[in-house]
Amino acid sequence: MSMLAAADLSVSLGGAPVLRGVGLALRPGEFTALVGPNGAGKSTLLRTLAGLAPSDAGTVTLDGVLLPAVPARERGRRLAYLAQASTVHWPLTVERLVALGRLPHLEPWRRPGPADAAAIDRALSLCDVEGFRDRAVTSLSGGERARVLLARALAGDPALLLADEPVAGLDPYHQLRVMEVLRDRAAAGTGVLAVLHDLALVARFCGRVILLEAGRVVADGPPSLVLEPGLLSRLYGVAWRDLGDGVMLPWERLGVSPPAPRD
Amino acid sequence: MTVIPLAERLLLPGLSLLVALLFLGSLAVGPSAVSLPQAAADWWRGGDSTAAVIFAEIRLPRAILGLAVGAVLGLSGAALQGLLRNPLAEPGLVGVSASAALGAVITFYSGLTLAFPLALPLGGMAGALLATGVLYLLAGRDAGVLTLILAGVAVSSLAAALTSLALSLSPNPFALTEIVFWMLGSLADRSLEHVLLATPFMLLGAALLLSVGRGLDALSLGEDTARSLGFSVSRVGALVIVGTALAVGAAVAVAGAIGFIGLIVPHLLRPLVAHQPGRLLAPSALGGAALALAADIAVRLGGPGPELKLGVVTALLGAPFFLALVLRLRRSVA
Prior knowledge:
Chain A is of the alpha/beta class. Chain A has helices spanning 42-49, 72-78, 94-99, 114-126, 142-155, 172-187, 199-205, 223-226, 229-236, and strands at residues 4-13, 16-26, 31-35, 57-62, 65-66, 79-82, 160-164, 191-195, 208-213, 216-221, 238-242, 248-253.
């Protein structure tokens, strides 16, 4: 049971502040959505939590150990990161690509064993991609490829999963399927933090929402409390329509663009 | 369980057999008719018959260098293509080939080669090591892969310019001819001293290159994902570039510039390992060795007249291939 915590995290990119004093804790068994307008710092927060971007101030700890002090392989075993719209550079087969998720578990110079094969098979079937196990990833459609990349992240059986827009580009069937997979993973004890834009999916599947605005956490709690029309309207510059059961749809734009980030 | 296709499982044994046969072929081919088993047996017993001397001082160094030079060119080409995720990368990219050539040309120019024959490969090694040092200093400072490659391009251009300067200032037309012929790349008339000089660096470089297979596999998912899987991208980059510099620098120092092997071989073998960059390393080493040995046998069988230079043959084969590769890539992108 791993826990990832950020305290007072500040990050800037090219001199511009992106995160300003973010604090949060990801607990095992929780499916948390990270929500906010474009440019709010969601992807940067995910990369920083994964140990991929340096921070100006503040700390990230994995099970109480400062992230830079956790050996990279150990971190790779416990924490999986699914990049946003990532490219695959060679026409690898789906199975070999998903097998790359096992790399942090392999001993140097040892071949993958039965445990690795089982984890790969499990991930392939969870993401509904075992049908094209032997096809080249580059020959798949964008949505199919997104599911293969999610399977890669799940193949490592991580205790924590940071996923940047895991349902972007998926058809409705597979959006639901991926949300179910992530929810089930969380129920089985994995801590999942996913950047999501579809607040209807968030309301239905996630136990917790973190709202990010201009690099600050402005709300953190269950969707029924956080996804509130007044706050969302201010955040996105959009009027929302409540369809009941906490399902909110963006309905019309208010003014010309979302409110400028406050400095 | 990942089932490795039969063709892929047979690749390493098949290529090893091919290399072994070509190695024997390289030992057997030459202008003087020598019975290979008899010469080898005589040499082994410590005999000094003409056959034994030809075997030990002409054929054996040539075959060993063909094997080693071809292997490091193929291996470093595969590693660089994996690192840069670009099928057009080749060993000359990191600047050591040009620097080794410059070092060798300076020994010609200064007349050191007349006083002391091994000055030539030593000069080449010094040039290559100097370039490696520059790259290593950059790599040690956690420079990105792109920085290292740009530094390699800069080192390459500077070395090429200085080589041209040495050529244009050369006082001796014979030295000029020698330099030009040397730069064409050849394995002819190399001694066991050449082998002993270059092999340690080639082995060390090859060991560094063979250690990065899984890092290259992870890099096929991009740098962020590779790092999230526990790999240090800057470490993988430094190993590939320093390994290439050591191995290819030593190869160029003893054999001159032999082009296109590092480009063609990984490209030909890539589909046979299902495009997995880490699994491409060992087959590319064997494939490079096979191609260099085969081309070096071909130049010796090339009929009467002066022997063609090995680098000329590989370029004659390689350039049309490169063109076809570019056209095919354009089609698949379009």
